[in-house]
Amino acid sequence: MAEPRSDGDLAPTATPPADDPLAGSTTEVAPDTPLASNTESAAAGNAAGAVEDAVAVEIGILQDLLEKPPAEVAAWALEQSKALGDKKTEVESLPIFKVAQALKMAQAGEKEALLNSVMQGVGDLPVEQRAEALRLMTQMPAGVTAESLAASSSSSSGQEAASALSTNLARLAQEAAIKDMAPEELQQIAQVVEKNQGQLVQPLLDAVSELTPEERNGMTDALVSKGLVSEQNRSAVEDAIKPGGTADQFASVMKMVTWAYQHTWLVWALPVLEVALALSFLSSGCWVALLPWLAGDAALANGIAFSAYATKHVLKSAYQEFTDNPLNMANRVQAAMAEGTKFTDAVPGANVAMYLIAGMVGLIFTGAVLVLLGLYELNATLWGASCSSAIRLTAIITCFPIMVMRALLPVAAVFYGMQAARKVQELRGQASGAQPLLSEAEPNYGSVEETPPV
Q1: Is residue 389 part of a domain?
Q2: Which residues does the chain have with pLDDT short of 70?
Q3: Domain membership of residue 178 as a residue range
Q4: 197 shares its domain with 88
Q5: Most exposed of 116, 158, 173, 231 (fewest Cβ within 10 Å)?
Q6: Segments in 68-123 forming alpha helices (H)
Q7: Predicted local distance difference test score (pLDDT) of residue 409
Q8: Which of 210, 231, 252 is the last residue of a domain?
Q9: Contact (Cβ atoms closer than 8 angstroms) between residue 251 and residue 205
């Protein structure tokens, strides 16, 4: 070892032997040496690989969603939305966050396909899940801005779910780069919504009955606060969605119209039965007193069936418009009637359908009058001796229920006719002075900015 210097500094240590295996092991590598460059390149490569793996995972989740049936996609979206309303949820850990990241890189067609799948799948959800979707809608923010988030962060505990949902939705919107989407792409997405929104009316109306009166009032407040319903029409909306209100009635009307249109073929069941009975009685070898009435009623039944099918044919375009978007059709008819157009002119095919329905009602009343003849012939069949007791009993058992139905049909026709006339009068009254309950769609659909109320 070298002696210490006179100035107090230590002398340099001796150089280790050249054959020492640990020699130079603590020597630092200069930043510009090849070894340092290789280390940085390896780290950068590992980081790039991790990013590529993360992107692959995100795209994989999106592709899996696009391959699933719409009902499963809608159920998945509902569960993810419920998780977004939990303030303890870390949004970055949710699959929907990865989907938002993937949407930022996805093609416009993939975005439209995902939205289309979600909206189509809502109708296939159980009614309980559709009711959950309506409850969740009351928590949805009207818009997501920095100011609204700051306000929501200081809200009361009763608004914690809505605050968390607003914050997490803003995070998703930012991750999906919605603000950076081209106007043309936003317009295409808006067209997808407009195309499918009519199919949501019936499923959501069915779910309204699952909500409590308090939840229905909350839905009204949410629609008004989001600017979807004007403040002037708040009371009208409350009356519409209250228990037994217009929403419940409209849901039942849609069910009835859809069922009747899809099962029109059932009107041929009675004519076929009566013709078969008449032929069997003719081939029995004896005279059945009920045969004249049965033949006449079969002719009336065929006329009613023909009128029903003809009505279905002339109202085909109106039914298609009704099922595609019933609210749009109601608004269109209401606006046309406000301008003085008759209801029968506002609905395609309604003029011809009214004549067919009138003819059908006339046949129904004629059949009710002929029941008197049928009762007379039924008595003759009961006491007649020209046929065996088995044939007479068969004639009585099969024809008497038909007579009862014929006698009750005019009552049903008058009842439903009065109901239909009342609905038309209500629609005409609404058209005379009321504003549309729903405001027009905003041109900047898809933006996360606050929409001013109407």
Answers
A1: yes
A2: 1-58, 138-162, 197-199, 201-202, 205, 223, 226-233, 236-237, 239-240, 244-254, 325-327, 385, 424, 426-454
A3: 49-210
A4: yes
A5: 158
A6: 70-84, 95-105, 108-122
A7: 92
A8: 210
A9: yes
Residues 273-298 as b/e (b if ≥16 CB within 10 A, e otherwise) read ebbebbeebeebeeebbbbebbebbb
What are the residues whose beta carbons fall under 8 Å from the beta carbon of 133, sequence distance 6 or more? 78, 122, 125, 204, 207
CB within 8 A of 265, min separation 6: which ones?
none
Of the three residues 193, 210, 227, the one that is the final residue of a domain is 210
Give the Cα separation of 398 and 429 in Å (integer): 47
Assess if residue 232 is contained within a domain: no
Query: Per the domain annotation, does 18 fall within a domain?
Result: no
User: Of 331, 325, 142, which is closest to residue 228 (Cα–Cα)?
Assistant: 142
pLDDT at 162: 59
Closest to 367 (Cα-Cα) out of 319, 442, 301: 301
pLDDT of residue 140: 67
- pLDDT score for 144: 43
DSSP state of 199: H
Number of domains within the chain: 2
Contact assessment for residue 198 and residue 120, using Cβ atoms and an 8 Å cutoff: no
Residue 249 included in any domain: no
User: ∠ at Cα 301 (296, 304), nearest 5°?
Assistant: 130
In angstroms, the CA 85 to CA 198 distance is 27
Q: CA 291 to CA 175: how far, in whole Å?
A: 77
In a shared domain, residues 186 and 66: yes
DSSP bridge partners of 229: 438
Q: What is the DSSP letter of 428?
A: H
Distance between CA 350 and CA 342 in Å, rounded?
A: 10
> Are 69 and 191 within one domain?
yes
Residues 195 and 285 in one domain: no
193, 402 in Cβ contact below 8 A? no
Predicted confidence at residue 83, as pLDDT, reads: 86
Same domain, 206 and 290: no
Predicted TM-score (pTM) of the model is: 0.51
How many C-beta atoms surround the C-beta of residue 364 within 10 A? 19
CA angle 53, 54, 55 (to 5 degrees): 90
Nearest to 185 by CA among 253, 296, 109, 238: 109
How much is the pLDDT for 141?
Answer: 60
Q: Which class for 207: exposed (0-12), middle (13-18), buried (19 or more C-beta within 10 A)?
A: buried
Torsion angle of alpha carbons 154, 157, 162, 164, nearest 10°?
A: 70
